[in-house]
Every structure is written in structure tokens, then in C-alpha cells.
Write a structure and sequence with these properties.
By secondary structure, this protein is α/β, with parallel strands linked by helices. It is built from 10 helices and 6 strands, in the order E-H-H-H-H-H-E-H-E-H-E-H-E-H-E-H. The longest helix is centred in the first third of the chain and has 19 residues.
């Protein structure tokens, strides 16, 4: 059965923000006297903050400082937002999918403030998508599938495919029973994205303009 909805991750997929996010997390941790290696933080980008803090540190840090660390991350990331750039081809991809009769929804672990700024960065508006789901719309973030399921429901779709940039995106999609197309712009390698279960790996979102969407929308998660 053909999938009727494409869910788009935002950070690292539509906008080139992965490394800004990692540096902001490093600054947040350091403000609490913690210095996890930057590579370790980078490997966790794609998780929401509720998952990232205990993953990078441990559950005791989450319990004692989790909310404050997430607030510190927001404060560190906010001044960087104007330096973030959009990847080429985002609007063209959305237009291509809409022309095929496919619903397109945004599914991001960011809060609504940062999601709105991301829309400005790509030069689009919420009205250009069937729905936009943020961290406030789900109990748990990726790799849990809550945000994806909420985005699909809000879009009025029945079966989805996700476009994301991390192994965490792929895992979240699999937990929802959806395939994931992966872009390399989050800094993960082709082999690890493929081994995680991506049905297709491309360099960047603009490369999907020439993809076999007939086949992708019929695909199943690996």
C-alpha cells in the first residue's frame, strides 16, 4: 500500500544546524561543570533533550539537572540561530511531493520557537505543510516514535515515510512501522545509516528531487 505522508525532520535535515546544536549542548553541560567529549554529544544529536541528557551523562544527571540543562541549551543555541543556513532544495521537494498528492509534515524535537525560526530559515511557513509537530506535542522524543505519530495524525495521513539525518530518526521511524530515507548532513556515515535500516541514503535533501518516489512510497522499514 502506498504511503500517503512524508514526515520531514528539521535539524540536520532541512537546516544545517547539527554542529550548532552540539556546541550549544557542550556549553550547557560545561555551565554545570560537566565536560562530555564533543564527539559524544554530536553522536547523540537527533535525540530530543529528554533523551540526550541521560544518554550523554547518566540518569542521575537527568533527574537532578535535566530541565535546567535543557534551558541552558536553549540559551546557548538561541544566539547561534542566525548563523544556521538552509539546505538547498527544501521547497522544491515539498512542492514535488504535494504535486504527487502526498501530504508533507514537519516532525521536530525542537520547541515551537526554534521550529518557527527554522521555517524562516528555509523561507517557508507552517501553512506550507499539513502539520508541524514539536517537542510540546509528544511525551517522549526520538528515538521514541511519539513525535512522528503525532505529526502523522495531525497531518491526517495513514501511513508515513520519514526523511531524517540520524540513526535516531531511523530507529524512531522503525518503532512506528515506517521506512526512513536518510541524508548525510547530520554527520552520520553511509554504512551506519544503512545498517540502522535506512531504505535510501543520499548526501543531502536536494538529492531527493531525483529519487524514485514511486518505490520509496511503497517501501517497508528494514
Amino acid at each position: 500500500m502506498t504511503r500517503d505522508t512524508v514526515l520531514l525532520d528539521v535539524d540536520g535535515t532541512l537546516i544545517d544546524s547539527t554542529y550548532h546544536c552540539a556546541i550549544a549542548w557542550a556549553q550547557a553541560f560545561e555551565s554545570f561543570g560537566m565536560k562530555p567529549p564533543l564527539w559524544h554529544i554530536h553522536r547523540a544529536i537527533g535525540m530530543g533533550g529528554d533523551q540526550l541528557v541521560p544518554h550523554v551523562t547518566d540518569q542521575s544527571v537527568e533527574e537532578e539537572h535535566g530541565d535546567a540543562l535543557r534551558e541552558a541549551w536553549e540559551d546557548a543555541y538561541r544566539p547561534m540561530m542566525d548563523d544556521v543556513r538552509a539546505f538547498d532544495g527544501v521547497r522544491e521537494l515539498v512542492d514535488l511531493l504535494h504535486a504527487r498528492g502526498v501530504k508533507v509534515a514537519l516532525a521536530t524535537s525542537s520547541n515551537s520557537e526554534f521550529a518557527q525560526k527554522a521555517l524562516e530559515t528555509i523561507g517557508m511557513a507552517a501553512e506550507d505543510f499539513e502539520s508541524m509537530t514539536t517537542s510540546s506535542d509528544a511525551d517522549a522524543s526520538k528515538p521514541e516514535p511519539d513525535i512522528l505519530a503525532s505529526a502523522l495524525e495531525k497531518a491526517g495521513g495513514s501511513r508515513a515515510l520519514l526523511v531524517g539525518d540520524s540513526t535516531w530518526d531511523i530507529e524512531a521511524a522503525k518503532r512506528m512501522g515506517a521506512p526512513c530515507v536518510a541524508v548525510r548532513t547530520g554527520g552520520f556515515g553511509v554504512d551506519e545509516l544503512t545498517e540502522a535500516g535506512a531504505v535510501l541514503v543520499v548526501d543531502a535533501v536536494g538529492d531527493l528531487l531525483d529519487a524514485d518516489w514511486d518505490g520509496l512510497l511503497e517501501s517497508e522499514p528494514r
